Amino acid sequence: MTVTIDQIRTTLRDRLAHVNGRIAAAATRSGRRPDDVTLIAVSKTAAVEVAAIAFDLGVRDFGESRPQELWKKHTALPAARWHLIGHLQRNKIDKTIPLVSLVHSADSERVLAALSEFGVKRASPVAVLLEVNCSREASKGGFPPESVGQVADAVMSLPGLRLEGLMTMAAYGDDPQTARPTFAELRELRDGLRTRTGLPLPQLSMGMSNDYEIAVEEGATLVRVGSTLFEGLGP
Ligand SMILES: *Cc1c(COP(=O)(O)O)cnc(C)c1O
């Protein structure tokens, strides 16, 4: 069965209303304003045409985990804000960073040093989040929580970077409540870093399709939602 453009548009409109409603309710429940949370539509499994419909429906922030896919979608939708949420190889920095508004996945001192060099070269700082492996799964990237203080000190000493906050991925589980301690830990880490660095560190990027409401209750400012929006819409 093929899905027509009209069906995709109707489905996406409904899904966006559903997700935005749940984000707003979770924010209100936890004494925050719905506007404090930005929905990032993770379009990595969606066709360019489907991402374009999402843009048309008002989505302005998109996340991609692979640089090549981000280049392609940015060409089609240059007016959107593009977030890099996956591992960045240093040899792709020059081509990728000019297209990206925030790097969520700074996951090694080596990539931070390379981003710093790039920020200095273009005379405009690169906005980054440190990816933290709160769930301590060997399969996941990111800095161990214990090391984040030292990493932040190192970032402070590097020119050409603007540290905006932290990002994490919770362990996958059937019950989204199991993700709550992970999200609370990221917030506590961020609060500690604020004291340590004196930086405002406004952004907490946490929560995906399965657990974004819990993440908002625990202080997420950026939620990265993919499959709940785009599943089954092609390609
Ligand atoms: C794919 C991905 C997401 C979106 O995941 P869904 O479960 O499809 O919502 C969020 N964050 C990162 C880092 C991802 O790679």
Describe this structure in words.
The chain is an alpha/beta fold. The protein has a single domain, classed as Alanine racemase (TIM Barrel, Alpha-Beta Barrel), CATH 3.20.20.10. 42% of the residues lie in helices and 17% in strands. The protein contains 9 helices and 8 strands. An 8-stranded parallel sheet has the order 7-6-5-4-3-2-1-8. Helix 2 links the parallel strand 1 and strand 2. Helix 6 runs parallel beside helix 7. It is globular, with a radius of gyration of 17 Å. The chain starts with a helix and ends in a 5-residue tail after the last helix. It binds pyridoxal-5'-phosphate. Pyridoxal-5'-phosphate (PLP) binds next to strand 8 and helix 9. InterPro entries: Ala_racemase_N (IPR001608), PLP-binding_barrel (IPR029066), PyrdxlP_homeostasis (IPR011078). This is Pyridoxal phosphate homeostasis protein. Keywords: Pyridoxal phosphate. Belongs to the pyridoxal phosphate-binding protein YggS/PROSC family. Its cofactor is pyridoxal 5'-phosphate.
